[in-house]
Amino acid sequence: MKFEDYRIAEEIVNCLKDLGFKRPTDIQYKAIPSILKGEDVLAVAQTGTGKTAAYAIPVLHLLHQNKSSKRTEGIKCVVMVPTHELAIQVTDVFKEIGKRTKVKAFGIYGGVEQDAQIQRLQKGIDILVATPGRLFDLRSQGYIDLSTIEILVLDEADYMLDLGFIKDIEDLVRLLPRKRQTLFFSATISKKIKETAYSLVKTEAIRIQISPKNPVAKNVSHQVTFIEMDDKRFFLERLVNENPDVKILAFVRTKVRAERVKSAMERVGIQCLTIHSDKSQEERNHILDQFKSGAVKLLVATDVSARGVDIPNIEFVVNYDLPEQVENYVHRVGRTGRANHRGYAISFCSPEEKELLEQIETFLDNKIEVLKIDHVDYQQTLVFTQEVSNDWKALIQNTEELEENVRLKKKRKKK
Ligand code: AMP
User: Fold this and answer.
1) Which of 84, 85, 90, 354 is the residue whose CA sits 20 to 30 A from 308?
2) Residue 215 domain-assigned?
3) Letter string b/e over residues 100-121, b meaning 16 or more CB atoms within 10 A of that residue's CB
4) Whose CA is nearest to atom 15 of ligand 1?
């Protein structure tokens, strides 16, 4: 299946080519045709599966068609997201995929001045990506009219509920026209999520679930190493030094720990960035830019600040501290192994954290491979990364061959 096989405007297909998207990912394959038909969708898929483009591509196509047929003015689609970072990221995806169309996407979020956002809104936009606070704020001041909305997208709905945005979702829905298409995306599914979803989508909504059993990306190798709490920084230092060209995202439990790890790294000459709730929006954007560009290769983050953020080409996710909430393991490692790239997730488990590890393994329904390191000779880390990467290459090759065989077989059948 190629993007050309869908009835999507050439302008959009060409942008997908520019982005190097050769074929749809699983979630795109399942969601795009239904969304194009105007159906409601309830999808369970994590970041890293290509879920943003799964709704952005068909939404852009539908609105592009609208534009060509000179339909009425006004905002046609609202995408509600839980965080500023996600708002920026989702807006960028719309802008990139819609670059050759006249459909205009714009993101509004708190933590920055309102004026520039108001000016842009006044020029007219088609797709509004927004965090709840800023959306209601600007609407109450009269800058946003929701009466022309045809499509509602809720992204990372589970995270929105975690952050207590349930009332905002309900309020938003009350302000939208009843006749609309609703696309509901969540990384996880629980009773509460289902209840919320069913109250929003039509009964005949298409349900899509990607990898329900084992929610972590297939192309991520998971390993755990048993290490004393005080030795963690030495191992991180080694990992950074042995892998100078790769981006490493390390998760810690608190902002204080993030700053401590940063100081420890800087003491041994390693540049390091931190991202957590004490940083202003502007600082966060700057930090993410530095990390994305590769100017600084090590980013230490807390869970909340990194959730949903798409940072391409991370090879290593390090659980410097094991997450206290099991689901956060999935969210953390979702930052690596994206869209068919390889990835490694390494957990540093101290004796105090063994119980957390057991909980994670139960949740994943899988044992995490133990990486044995000689704690005196850290050189072994080098051996480890090379070994894993060779295994990985073999795995990729096999998968590619397998896919090619399936394609050939299908072709032969058609003939
Ligand atoms: P998301 O799950 O939306 O956070 O997307 C994860 C990453 O996958 C992003 O960096 C996208 O640019 C990339 N991506 C999305 N769709 C495709 C595709 N069809 N082929 C290759 N990469 C993709």
Assistant:
1) 354
2) no
3) ebebbbbbbbbbeeeeebeeeb
4) 50
